[in-house]
Amino acid sequence: MTWPVVILNGPELNQTLAGIKFDQFGTQTQQEIFVCETWQQGFAWAQNHGHAQALFVKSGTIILDWNQWKDLLNNYPHKGLIAHLIWHPGQSLRMDDQCWFMNIDQFLLEDFDCVSVEHPAPVRSEQNLHDDYTPLWVKPGQHTLAYQVDGFGQGLIARQLQKNRAVVNWNCTTRDLKFFLYGTALDLDIFRDYKQLAESQLWVFNNEPIELVKKSKLLAPGSGLYWILNIVEPATEHIQIVDISHVQVKFCQALWQNWDGVNYGSFVWDFISQNNLIHYQLDVPDLTPIERLKIKGKQKFIEYVNTKFDHQVTEEFKTKWLHARQHKQVEFCNDNLITWVLAHNVDKYDNIWCSNILDYKWTLLHTTMKEYTDFQAKLK
Protein backbone atom coordinates (compact mmCIF):
# COMPACT_ATOMS: atom_id res chain seq x y z
CA MET A 1 0.00 0.00 0.00
CA THR A 2 1.51 3.33 -1.05
CA TRP A 3 0.60 6.80 0.13
CA PRO A 4 2.57 10.06 0.42
CA VAL A 5 3.61 12.00 3.50
CA VAL A 6 2.63 15.67 3.59
CA ILE A 7 4.82 17.68 5.99
CA LEU A 8 3.98 21.16 7.24
CA ASN A 9 7.16 23.21 7.02
CA GLY A 10 8.71 24.44 10.25
CA PRO A 11 11.99 24.89 12.19
CA GLU A 12 12.31 21.15 12.93
CA LEU A 13 11.75 20.04 9.33
CA ASN A 14 15.18 18.39 9.00
CA GLN A 15 14.66 16.20 12.04
CA THR A 16 11.18 15.20 10.90
CA LEU A 17 12.58 14.30 7.47
CA ALA A 18 15.30 12.17 9.10
CA GLY A 19 12.72 9.73 10.48
CA ILE A 20 10.75 9.49 7.22
CA LYS A 21 13.36 9.58 4.45
CA PHE A 22 15.48 6.97 6.24
CA ASP A 23 14.76 3.78 8.16
CA GLN A 24 15.97 2.99 11.65
CA PHE A 25 19.56 2.42 10.51
CA GLY A 26 19.84 5.06 7.81
CA THR A 27 18.81 3.27 4.61
CA GLN A 28 16.69 5.44 2.30
CA THR A 29 12.99 4.53 2.41
CA GLN A 30 12.11 6.06 -1.01
CA GLN A 31 9.00 7.47 0.68
CA GLU A 32 7.16 10.09 -1.39
CA ILE A 33 7.14 13.40 0.52
CA PHE A 34 5.61 16.80 -0.11
CA VAL A 35 6.54 19.77 2.09
CA CYS A 36 3.76 22.36 2.30
CA GLU A 37 3.37 25.81 3.83
CA THR A 38 -0.29 25.29 4.80
CA TRP A 39 -2.42 22.20 5.37
CA GLN A 40 -4.74 23.40 2.60
CA GLN A 41 -1.81 23.40 0.16
CA GLY A 42 -0.79 19.91 1.26
CA PHE A 43 -4.31 18.50 0.94
CA ALA A 44 -4.77 20.10 -2.49
CA TRP A 45 -1.45 18.62 -3.65
CA ALA A 46 -2.49 15.10 -2.55
CA GLN A 47 -5.90 15.55 -4.18
CA ASN A 48 -4.49 16.90 -7.46
CA HIS A 49 -1.97 14.06 -7.70
CA GLY A 50 -4.68 11.44 -7.39
CA HIS A 51 -3.66 10.03 -4.02
CA ALA A 52 -6.32 7.97 -2.28
CA GLN A 53 -4.72 8.38 1.16
CA ALA A 54 -2.03 10.50 2.79
CA LEU A 55 -0.24 10.90 6.11
CA PHE A 56 -0.03 14.49 7.34
CA VAL A 57 2.67 15.42 9.86
CA LYS A 58 3.82 18.71 11.32
CA SER A 59 7.51 19.59 11.49
CA GLY A 60 8.62 18.47 14.93
CA THR A 61 7.01 15.04 14.59
CA ILE A 62 9.68 12.37 15.01
CA ILE A 63 9.27 8.80 13.76
CA LEU A 64 11.66 6.34 15.41
CA ASP A 65 11.33 3.39 13.01
CA TRP A 66 9.72 4.26 9.67
CA ASN A 67 9.35 0.69 8.36
CA GLN A 68 7.60 -0.49 11.50
CA TRP A 69 5.44 2.65 11.57
CA LYS A 70 4.39 2.20 7.95
CA ASP A 71 3.53 -1.46 8.46
CA LEU A 72 1.38 -0.59 11.45
CA LEU A 73 -0.39 2.16 9.55
CA ASN A 74 -1.09 -0.06 6.55
CA ASN A 75 -2.89 -2.49 8.86
CA TYR A 76 -4.54 0.09 11.14
CA PRO A 77 -8.34 -0.30 11.44
CA HIS A 78 -10.06 2.97 10.54
CA LYS A 79 -12.93 4.52 8.60
CA GLY A 80 -10.91 7.16 6.78
CA LEU A 81 -9.53 9.36 9.58
CA ILE A 82 -6.93 8.59 12.25
CA ALA A 83 -5.91 11.49 14.47
CA HIS A 84 -4.79 12.67 17.87
CA LEU A 85 -8.30 13.23 19.19
CA ILE A 86 -8.56 15.74 22.02
CA TRP A 87 -11.79 16.22 23.95
CA HIS A 88 -11.36 18.05 27.21
CA PRO A 89 -14.41 18.10 29.51
CA GLY A 90 -16.59 21.10 28.72
CA GLN A 91 -14.84 21.81 25.40
CA SER A 92 -15.45 20.91 21.77
CA LEU A 93 -13.87 17.85 20.16
CA ARG A 94 -10.78 18.66 18.08
CA MET A 95 -7.54 17.24 16.63
CA ASP A 96 -3.91 17.94 17.42
CA ASP A 97 -2.38 18.73 14.02
CA GLN A 98 0.97 17.05 14.74
CA CYS A 99 -0.07 13.89 12.86
CA TRP A 100 -3.11 12.45 11.14
CA PHE A 101 -3.96 10.02 8.33
CA MET A 102 -6.91 10.36 5.98
CA ASN A 103 -8.67 8.95 2.96
CA ILE A 104 -8.37 11.96 0.66
CA ASP A 105 -11.58 11.36 -1.30
CA GLN A 106 -13.73 11.45 1.85
CA PHE A 107 -12.97 15.12 2.49
CA LEU A 108 -13.08 18.52 0.79
CA LEU A 109 -10.63 21.41 0.81
CA GLU A 110 -13.30 23.59 2.44
CA ASP A 111 -13.23 21.31 5.51
CA PHE A 112 -10.00 23.08 6.51
CA ASP A 113 -11.49 26.58 6.30
CA CYS A 114 -14.98 26.37 7.79
CA VAL A 115 -15.86 28.79 10.61
CA SER A 116 -18.85 26.83 11.88
CA VAL A 117 -19.86 23.18 11.79
CA GLU A 118 -22.97 21.08 12.23
CA HIS A 119 -22.83 17.33 12.73
CA PRO A 120 -24.26 14.48 14.78
CA ALA A 121 -23.24 14.90 18.41
CA PRO A 122 -20.21 12.63 18.94
CA VAL A 123 -20.33 9.66 21.26
CA ARG A 124 -16.97 8.80 22.79
CA SER A 125 -15.36 5.64 24.06
CA GLU A 126 -15.47 5.23 27.81
CA GLN A 127 -11.74 4.53 27.88
CA ASN A 128 -9.02 7.12 27.22
CA LEU A 129 -5.49 6.55 26.04
CA HIS A 130 -4.24 8.80 28.83
CA ASP A 131 -5.77 11.30 31.26
CA ASP A 132 -9.44 12.12 30.62
CA TYR A 133 -9.33 13.83 27.20
CA THR A 134 -8.03 11.25 24.69
CA PRO A 135 -10.87 8.90 23.70
CA LEU A 136 -9.96 5.78 21.75
CA TRP A 137 -12.65 6.70 19.23
CA VAL A 138 -15.69 8.85 18.64
CA LYS A 139 -18.73 7.97 16.55
CA PRO A 140 -21.89 9.85 15.50
CA GLY A 141 -24.73 9.98 18.00
CA GLN A 142 -28.45 10.69 17.60
CA HIS A 143 -28.66 14.44 18.17
CA THR A 144 -27.32 17.28 16.02
CA LEU A 145 -24.66 19.67 17.29
CA ALA A 146 -23.79 23.08 15.82
CA TYR A 147 -21.04 25.44 16.98
CA GLN A 148 -18.36 27.92 15.92
CA VAL A 149 -15.03 26.33 15.04
CA ASP A 150 -12.47 26.95 17.78
CA GLY A 151 -9.95 24.15 17.25
CA PHE A 152 -8.02 22.41 14.52
CA GLY A 153 -9.62 19.59 12.55
CA GLN A 154 -13.21 20.26 13.55
CA GLY A 155 -14.25 20.56 9.90
CA LEU A 156 -12.67 17.17 9.16
CA ILE A 157 -14.34 15.59 12.18
CA ALA A 158 -17.67 17.12 11.16
CA ARG A 159 -17.40 15.69 7.65
CA GLN A 160 -16.62 12.26 9.04
CA LEU A 161 -19.51 12.24 11.50
CA GLN A 162 -21.94 13.62 8.91
CA LYS A 163 -21.14 10.58 6.75
CA ASN A 164 -21.83 8.26 9.70
CA ARG A 165 -18.16 7.30 10.08
CA ALA A 166 -16.16 6.98 13.28
CA VAL A 167 -12.83 8.72 13.97
CA VAL A 168 -10.13 6.69 15.73
CA ASN A 169 -7.22 7.85 17.84
CA TRP A 170 -3.60 6.75 17.49
CA ASN A 171 -3.12 3.69 19.70
CA CYS A 172 -0.31 3.10 22.18
CA THR A 173 1.76 1.04 19.71
CA THR A 174 1.92 3.86 17.17
CA ARG A 175 2.56 6.42 19.91
CA ASP A 176 5.58 4.43 21.05
CA LEU A 177 7.06 4.92 17.55
CA LYS A 178 6.28 8.62 17.29
CA PHE A 179 6.55 11.74 19.39
CA PHE A 180 6.42 15.51 18.98
CA LEU A 181 9.10 17.98 20.04
CA TYR A 182 6.79 20.81 21.22
CA GLY A 183 9.67 23.28 20.80
CA THR A 184 12.12 21.26 22.88
CA ALA A 185 15.49 20.01 21.67
CA LEU A 186 15.58 16.53 20.16
CA ASP A 187 17.10 13.96 22.52
CA LEU A 188 19.54 12.32 20.10
CA ASP A 189 20.11 9.48 22.55
CA ILE A 190 16.88 7.89 21.31
CA PHE A 191 18.77 7.20 18.06
CA ARG A 192 21.75 5.79 19.96
CA ASP A 193 22.11 2.59 17.87
CA TYR A 194 22.00 4.50 14.59
CA LYS A 195 24.38 7.21 15.85
CA GLN A 196 26.92 4.59 16.91
CA LEU A 197 26.68 3.01 13.46
CA ALA A 198 27.03 6.27 11.53
CA GLU A 199 29.85 7.55 13.71
CA SER A 200 31.85 4.33 13.26
CA GLN A 201 31.07 3.73 9.58
CA LEU A 202 33.80 3.18 7.00
CA TRP A 203 33.16 4.16 3.38
CA VAL A 204 35.67 2.37 1.17
CA PHE A 205 34.25 3.93 -2.01
CA ASN A 206 31.92 6.81 -2.78
CA ASN A 207 28.28 6.31 -3.74
CA GLU A 208 28.32 9.27 -6.13
CA PRO A 209 30.54 10.41 -9.03
CA ILE A 210 33.88 11.94 -8.03
CA GLU A 211 34.78 15.36 -9.38
CA LEU A 212 38.43 16.27 -9.87
CA VAL A 213 38.32 19.89 -8.70
CA LYS A 214 41.83 20.94 -9.77
CA LYS A 215 42.05 23.72 -7.18
CA SER A 216 44.67 24.44 -4.53
CA LYS A 217 42.80 24.15 -1.22
CA LEU A 218 39.88 21.76 -0.72
CA LEU A 219 37.52 20.93 2.14
CA ALA A 220 35.65 17.60 2.19
CA PRO A 221 34.47 14.57 4.18
CA GLY A 222 36.85 11.62 4.26
CA SER A 223 34.49 9.10 2.70
CA GLY A 224 35.70 6.97 -0.20
CA LEU A 225 38.17 8.07 -2.84
CA TYR A 226 37.33 11.76 -3.35
CA TRP A 227 40.20 13.13 -1.30
CA ILE A 228 42.61 10.44 -2.53
CA LEU A 229 42.00 11.20 -6.20
CA ASN A 230 42.11 14.95 -5.62
CA ILE A 231 45.27 15.09 -3.53
CA VAL A 232 47.29 13.56 -6.40
CA GLU A 233 46.06 16.26 -8.81
CA PRO A 234 48.93 18.67 -9.62
CA ALA A 235 46.83 21.73 -8.71
CA THR A 236 45.93 20.47 -5.23
CA GLU A 237 48.19 21.54 -2.35
CA HIS A 238 46.02 21.09 0.74
CA ILE A 239 42.91 19.15 1.77
CA GLN A 240 41.07 19.57 5.06
CA ILE A 241 39.04 16.45 5.92
CA VAL A 242 36.09 16.83 8.28
CA ASP A 243 34.00 13.70 8.90
CA ILE A 244 31.50 12.59 11.57
CA SER A 245 32.87 9.03 11.53
CA HIS A 246 35.88 8.67 13.82
CA VAL A 247 36.67 5.41 12.00
CA GLN A 248 36.69 7.17 8.63
CA VAL A 249 39.07 9.81 9.97
CA LYS A 250 41.35 7.13 11.43
CA PHE A 251 41.34 5.27 8.10
CA CYS A 252 42.24 8.41 6.15
CA GLN A 253 45.07 9.15 8.56
CA ALA A 254 46.38 5.60 8.24
CA LEU A 255 46.36 5.84 4.44
CA TRP A 256 48.13 9.19 4.45
CA GLN A 257 50.79 8.14 6.95
CA ASN A 258 51.44 4.52 5.94
CA TRP A 259 50.11 3.50 2.54
CA ASP A 260 52.51 3.26 -0.40
CA GLY A 261 49.79 3.63 -3.04
CA VAL A 262 49.79 -0.07 -4.00
CA ASN A 263 47.14 -2.75 -3.29
CA TYR A 264 44.36 -0.59 -1.84
CA GLY A 265 42.26 -3.72 -1.28
CA SER A 266 44.86 -5.32 1.00
CA PHE A 267 45.25 -2.10 3.02
CA VAL A 268 41.48 -1.86 3.46
CA TRP A 269 41.20 -5.53 4.48
CA ASP A 270 43.98 -5.17 7.06
CA PHE A 271 42.43 -2.00 8.49
CA ILE A 272 39.00 -3.63 8.82
CA SER A 273 40.53 -6.74 10.44
CA GLN A 274 42.83 -4.89 12.82
CA ASN A 275 40.01 -2.63 14.02
CA ASN A 276 37.35 -5.37 14.15
CA LEU A 277 35.02 -3.31 11.99
CA ILE A 278 31.46 -4.45 11.36
CA HIS A 279 30.10 -1.38 9.61
CA TYR A 280 31.80 -0.73 6.30
CA GLN A 281 30.40 0.15 2.89
CA LEU A 282 31.77 -0.95 -0.46
CA ASP A 283 28.91 0.73 -2.37
CA VAL A 284 27.86 -2.40 -4.25
CA PRO A 285 24.06 -2.11 -4.42
CA ASP A 286 23.68 -4.45 -7.43
CA LEU A 287 25.42 -7.50 -5.99
CA THR A 288 23.38 -10.65 -5.41
CA PRO A 289 23.32 -12.22 -1.90
CA ILE A 290 25.70 -14.95 -3.14
CA GLU A 291 28.13 -12.38 -4.59
CA ARG A 292 28.01 -10.42 -1.32
CA LEU A 293 28.82 -13.58 0.61
CA LYS A 294 31.78 -14.34 -1.66
CA ILE A 295 33.48 -10.99 -1.09
CA LYS A 296 33.40 -11.58 2.66
CA GLY A 297 36.46 -13.78 2.12
CA LYS A 298 39.89 -12.12 2.12
CA GLN A 299 41.03 -13.00 -1.40
CA LYS A 300 37.73 -12.13 -3.12
CA PHE A 301 37.42 -8.96 -1.04
CA ILE A 302 40.88 -7.73 -2.00
CA GLU A 303 40.36 -8.62 -5.66
CA TYR A 304 37.02 -6.82 -5.77
CA VAL A 305 38.31 -3.65 -4.07
CA ASN A 306 41.46 -3.52 -6.19
CA THR A 307 39.51 -4.00 -9.44
CA LYS A 308 37.10 -1.21 -8.51
CA PHE A 309 39.96 1.04 -7.37
CA ASP A 310 42.08 0.42 -10.48
CA HIS A 311 39.18 1.49 -12.71
CA GLN A 312 39.28 4.93 -11.11
CA VAL A 313 43.00 5.71 -11.15
CA THR A 314 45.72 6.10 -13.78
CA GLU A 315 48.86 4.00 -14.13
CA GLU A 316 50.89 6.82 -12.57
CA PHE A 317 48.84 6.82 -9.36
CA LYS A 318 51.53 5.27 -7.12
CA THR A 319 54.13 7.84 -8.16
CA LYS A 320 51.70 10.72 -7.73
CA TRP A 321 50.55 9.44 -4.33
CA LEU A 322 54.07 9.10 -2.94
CA HIS A 323 54.92 12.57 -4.25
CA ALA A 324 51.78 14.01 -2.63
CA ARG A 325 52.68 12.46 0.74
CA GLN A 326 56.05 14.18 0.59
CA HIS A 327 54.99 17.59 -0.68
CA LYS A 328 51.32 18.19 0.13
CA GLN A 329 49.25 18.67 3.27
CA VAL A 330 46.17 16.82 4.53
CA GLU A 331 44.55 17.72 7.86
CA PHE A 332 41.96 15.63 9.69
CA CYS A 333 39.05 16.48 11.98
CA ASN A 334 36.27 14.33 13.45
CA ASP A 335 33.32 16.75 13.34
CA ASN A 336 30.07 17.74 11.60
CA LEU A 337 31.17 19.36 8.33
CA ILE A 338 28.24 21.79 8.36
CA THR A 339 28.80 23.18 11.86
CA TRP A 340 32.59 23.08 11.34
CA VAL A 341 32.26 25.27 8.25
CA LEU A 342 29.99 27.70 10.10
CA ALA A 343 32.49 27.95 12.97
CA HIS A 344 35.59 28.56 10.83
CA ASN A 345 36.76 31.02 8.23
CA VAL A 346 36.53 28.95 5.06
CA ASP A 347 37.37 31.69 2.58
CA LYS A 348 40.83 30.17 2.14
CA TYR A 349 39.32 27.02 0.59
CA ASP A 350 38.73 27.02 -3.15
CA ASN A 351 36.07 24.32 -2.97
CA ILE A 352 33.84 22.68 -0.36
CA TRP A 353 32.65 19.22 -1.35
CA CYS A 354 29.92 17.81 0.86
CA SER A 355 29.30 14.38 -0.71
CA ASN A 356 25.79 13.23 0.26
CA ILE A 357 25.77 14.70 3.75
CA LEU A 358 22.96 17.16 3.00
CA ASP A 359 20.70 14.16 2.44
CA TYR A 360 22.05 11.92 5.21
CA LYS A 361 20.11 10.83 8.29
CA TRP A 362 22.87 11.74 10.75
CA THR A 363 23.12 15.28 9.34
CA LEU A 364 19.36 15.81 9.29
CA LEU A 365 19.15 14.78 12.94
CA HIS A 366 22.02 17.01 14.06
CA THR A 367 21.54 20.14 11.95
CA THR A 368 18.90 22.85 12.02
CA MET A 369 17.22 24.40 8.98
CA LYS A 370 19.09 27.67 9.64
CA GLU A 371 22.43 25.84 9.75
CA TYR A 372 21.56 24.15 6.45
CA THR A 373 20.76 27.48 4.83
CA ASP A 374 23.88 29.18 6.20
CA PHE A 375 26.07 26.26 5.09
CA GLN A 376 24.69 26.20 1.54
CA ALA A 377 25.44 29.92 1.25
CA LYS A 378 29.12 29.11 1.85
CA LEU A 379 29.39 26.33 -0.74
CA LYS A 380 31.65 27.18 -3.66
Largest sheet: 8 strands, mixed
Rg from alpha-carbon coordinates: 26 Å
Portion in helices: 25-40%
User: Total number of helical segments?
Assistant: 15
Number of domains: 2
The average pLDDT value, as a whole number, equals 94
Q: Determine the strand fraction and express it as a percent band.
A: 15-25%
Report the principal-axis shape: elongated
Structural class: alpha/beta
Low-confidence stretches are none
Distance between the termini: 42 Å
* Secondary structure tally: strands: 16
Order of the strands making up the biggest sheet: 2-1-3-6-5-9-8-7
Short description:
With 380 residues, the chain is α/β, with parallel strands linked by helices. It is elongated, with a radius of gyration of 26 Å.
Features:
8-stranded mixed beta sheet; 2 domains; 15 helices; alpha/beta; elongated; 380 residues
Overview of the molecule:
With 380 residues, this protein is an alpha/beta fold. The protein has two domains: 5-185; 194-378, no CATH class. It has helices at 13-21, 39-48, 66-74, 154-162, 172-176, 192-198, 226-231, 246-258, 264-274, 289-294, 298-310, 317-327, 337-343, 361-366, 369-378; strands spanning 5-8, 33-36, 53-58, 61-63, 81-86, 94-103, 116-124, 137-148, 167-169, 178-180, 202-203, 217-220, 238-243, 280-281, 329-334, 351-352. The model has no long low-confidence stretch (mean pLDDT 94).
